[in-house]
Amino acid sequence: MKLLNIYPRSLSFLSRKYTGLAILFLVIAGISACKKSYLDVVPDNVATIDNAFANRNEAEKYLFTLYSYLPQEGHPDLNPAFSSGDEAWSYWPMNAEDYAYVDPYNIARGNQNRANPYMNYWDGYAGKSLWQGIRACNIFLENLDNVTDLQPYLKVRWIAEAKFLKAYFHWYLFRMYGPIPIVDKNLPITASPEALKVYRQPVDTVVNYIARLIDDAAAGDANTGLPATITSSSTELGRITKVAALAIKARVLVTAASPLFNGNTDFAGLKSNDGKVLFNPQYDATKWTRAADACKVAIDAATAAGLKLYYFNPGIVVVNDATKIEMNIRNAVCEKWNSELIWGLTTGANPTAALQQMACPQLDPNNINLNVRGKLAPPMKMAELFYTKNGVPIEEDKTWDYANRFKLRTVTAQDADMQNGYQTVGLHFEREPRFYADMAFDGSTWFMKNGTFNIQSESGEYTGKKQSRLYSITGYFTKKIVNWNLVYTSSNLTLESYPWPAMRLSDLYLLYAESLNESGNSAAALPYLNQIRARAGLQSVESSWSNFSNNPTKYTTISGLRDIIRQERGIEMAFEGSRFWDLRRWKTAPQVLSAPIYGWDILQSTPEDYNRKVLLYNPQFVAPRDYFWPIKEYNLQVNPNLVQNSGW
To answer: Which positions fall inside the SusD-like N-terminal domain (predicted)?
Structure first.
């Protein structure tokens, strides 16, 4: 996509003093004196409003600019859900070569602050100002009628895309900050100073606004507005479809129905400065019904569009059944534009290149490449999250030796995905396929298109710690997000950057199952869970719990199935930026995110010494403060109608 520059350099002085909504409204006020619109205040060679909508080609460039405001969610330093929580850990301090932005790592270590917040998407982070993105959407919607050579069907589609993106930018801010101002229309240049001082709106108002915008964007039949699927793969991949819009709406409504936003009394004292209560403290069961209905509409649309759970086709590569199942899981994320992908984000030239470099360790002892860093390290709690081979939690499986999970065992030829004769702990034996597909550890194997590699991480070994950087601090590696086409030599690295899966079908199935269960229709949730489990080589929930769990009837109650769905979601969506937000919306973050970070003793060179549990960090999630980002203090001074989030 060719992008239109809408950041006038003549206004660059504002970035040093004013930020976020403050910039937005001060720019409006400043422009009102000279009666020019926002984009008219530009240096040479930057488009004005008149130029931007002079014809179809220029307007299309502006449309593509709207997409450029989407955060680069496939980058470990730009998506807070990667490195700001407990799903991946890193050594500390880090060399400047090991990160693009250090913000998320500071958040994970409890260093967030209100004076200069980390990952501050309210004011602009890594060149992404979401309020500016919203403003650009409004400019587009206000001026598209000026394009005289635009076919009506394209106009309807472009309007739908702009409305969806405006909704998504509001949603992104809402998820981070909670109740936010709604900017449905840009204020006129004649607006009074008081009109510029906006208020935060109540949670339900914001949610309903976002849902209504997405409804507008997704309206019409299959031939109206947003397409059901992208047909021009050479020019349009990454643009929003009707299915994607409906799926994102489903996610918004599931979040709104969840404990953080539904009947949460923790924020009863948070009121806007005009007296509005920003969090409704009353629980509303109908929110789950509304969420379930939205999920079902999205699933039906996905089915009609031909989307289905991904299954690996090895082509000319010969693999065994275990590897096929492993690649079902890995390539559901990493195979470009696969059958399960509902919306893939292409923001950035190579949207997942940095992520793969950070995740992949040194695989080949004969070729050391410093661009393969292996530092995105899952802690031990993630290893313990996955099921046993029988499809139940490790502490529930009555056939699995939970008490001796930290004792050494020797790998045999019958143990898939591990090196025969190698010694590792019982925790790594007889686990479900998703464990071996998602994570690698000392003694495991790593299947790639150009061969299968052994992971040997004890001190001095080629995947272990050999210097002050470029190693896994926990001893685990994030295999799931590394495309199997990655290949390197000592002097060259070739990787296939895939679109980041902002939404895939299994995610939507899990959201639907959760909504059904919370709506009192637990039996209807099970088929959606079981489809996901079958793809991962597991028996159904009913069979697994009945035959192997020490709590065999757990799935028959709403609370029991809730626990199962949440763990199933944690496993299926591991390392995809879901856990960070799920723990918050479920209000389990204070317990889970305050649990210690453990790894193995990576400085040791023998199995007995290496496989010792080591405390790496004691994080502390402070509730209710840490559920939301702080608004920068300066913004509250510029606009006294804004109020700070609780605890900040």
So the answer is: 38-252
Answer yes or no: is pLDDT of 48 > 90: no
Q: Which H or E run includes 452?
A: strand 451-454
Q: What is the pLDDT of residues 315-359, one digit of tens each?
A: 888 999 999 999 999 999 999 999 999 999 999 889 999 999 999
| Same domain? 13 vs 162 | yes
Residue 70: Cβ within 10 Å count: 21
Evaluate whether 456 touches 605 at the Cβ level (below 8 Å).
no
- Residue 280 to residue 383: CA distance in whole angstroms: 37
**CATH of residue 258:** 1.25.40.390
Q: How many CB atoms lie within 10 A of CB 242?
A: 26
* Pair 231, 237: CB distance under 8 Å: no
Task: For 515-545, write each residue's pLDDT tens digit.
Answer: 999 999 999 999 999 999 999 999 999 999 9
* Range(s) of the domain holding residue 242: 9-306+630-638
Query: In terms of domains, do 78 and 192 share one?
Result: yes
Measured in residues, the chain has a length of 648
Q: What is the DSSP letter of 111?
A: -
Has this prediction a pTM greater than 0.90? yes
Q: Mark out the alpha helices in 178-228 (DSSP H runs).
A: 203-218
Whether a cis peptide bond, with omega within 30° of 0, leads into 596 is no
- What is the number of domains present in the chain? 2
